[in-house]
Amino acid sequence: MEPIIELRGVRKSFGAEEVLRSLDLSISKDAVSVIIGRSGSGKSVLIKHIIGLIRPDQGQVLIEGQDIARLDERSMASIRRKFGMLFQGSALFDSMTVEDNVAFPLHEHTRKPRREIRDIVSAKLAAVGLKDMEHKMPAELSGGMRKRVGLARALALDPKIVLFDEPTSGLDPIMAATINELIVRTQAEFGATCVVISHDILAAMSTGHRLFMLYEGRIIAEGTPEEIQEWDDPVVQQFIHGRTQGPISIA
Ligand SMILES: Nc1ncnc2c1ncn2[C@@H]1O[C@H](COP(=O)(O)OP(=O)(O)O)[C@@H](O)[C@H]1O
Ligand SMILES: [Mg+2]
């Protein structure tokens, strides 16, 4: 099957630091793909390449077969409409109500009338379990609720691809499980391709159809949760079992 997202030979450095070192990655449609790796390994940098917020120094970033690596901003804007993204830390506008946060991409990218936007917002809020929360301010919400508002906003334009950067970090285990269930439902009910970045190996195992491990700038393992569990590489084994002893240096 044709991948919906494909990275080929992507290199990215910041100053002297090589973050991505000729990275290849192929993500198939209509599934939940989870990219795991240590903090600081370049997961956020990788996901920002997929949505065109960071451009590679070298290599290709193909979205539905179109290379966006060197696309001008104008064409990039139309590519970005294929995406919804839940940022690490939710990235809500604190001075806006929940309703205005979720409505924001609809006002930015469509000419839909206010009334229709209001209906879409309340449907998306209901879908993430936040019915009738329109008039709350972000500061009044718990971390898990903020994530869900972020997810409702990411889904506002019915994107083909939804990206999640550390969706459960900082949440208690029950709220984390709720968010993980929402990710699985987002894929199943909206038919979106979901790409999740996580350092939480248990969450990755329970939500991902396919797992990818990022290490030293490359994808070093790829497979189903069962395949990753059995992966014959001491780096992968150390990471998934959270061992302090092994080839990964604890800096
Ligand atoms: N815009 C940037 N400018 C300079 N360095 C960056 C930038 N973004 C990320 N980095 C560096 O790239 C490395 C990987 O960061 P990141 O992708 O955020 O890691 P992760 O998400 O896996 O924790 C880090 O060393 C970070 O400091
Ligand atoms: Mg990150």
Beta-strand residue fraction: 15-25%
Radius of gyration: 18 Å
Order of helices and strands: EEEHEEHEHHHEHEHEEHH
Question: Could you state the CATH homologous superfamily of the largest domain?
Answer: P-loop containing nucleotide triphosphate hydrolases
CATH class of the largest domain: Alpha Beta
First-to-last CA distance: 40 Å
In total, how many beta strands? 10
Spatial sequence of strands, sheet with the most strands: 6-7-8-3-9-10
What is the 3D shape?
globular
Structural class computed from helices and strand pairing: alpha/beta
Which compounds are bound in this model? adenosine-5'-diphosphate, magnesium ion
Number of domains: 2
Largest β-sheet summary: 6 strands, mixed
- The low-confidence parts are none
CATH architectural grouping of the largest domain? 3-Layer(aba) Sandwich
What is the mean pLDDT?
93
